[in-house]
Design a protein that fits this description.
Distance between the termini: 45 Å
Radius of gyration: 14 Å
Number of domains: 1
Strand content: under 5%
Number of helices: 4
Mean pLDDT: 92
Number of strands: 0
CATH architecture: Up-down Bundle
CATH class: Mainly Alpha
Shape: elongated
Order of helices and strands: HHHH
Largest sheet: none
Structural class: mainly alpha
Length: 84
């Protein structure tokens, strides 16, 4: 594995793991009052597009990070819509 892929995977871990606390908090409390719906719709859409880009460009770090982030962002977005 090349150094650039290792750096990409490390970056992917950092950015992806940053969503876990918010997702857990949202699932536990169902409180989404302070979360912007517009921001999460835009962010989730962007994450989906990055995932597609990562798949088609054969970039493991980009695809992996955005697949996992899409799950967490999607959960938060669903809770925001459901418990708005």
């Amino acid at each position: 594995m090349s150094l650039i892929v290792i750096i990409g995977l490390a970056a992917a871990c950092c950015t992806t793991l940053s969503f876990i606390p918010q997702a857990i908090q949202t699932i536990r409390t169902r409180n989404t009052k302070d979360i912007s719906l517009g921001m999460y719709v835009l962010f989730t859409t962007g994450t989906l597009l990055w995932l597609i880009y990562g798949i088609f460009s054969h970039s493991l770090p980009v695809a992996l990070a955005n697949a996992v982030t899409l799950v967490f962002a999607g959960i938060i977005l669903i809770y925001k819509i459901k418990y708005h």
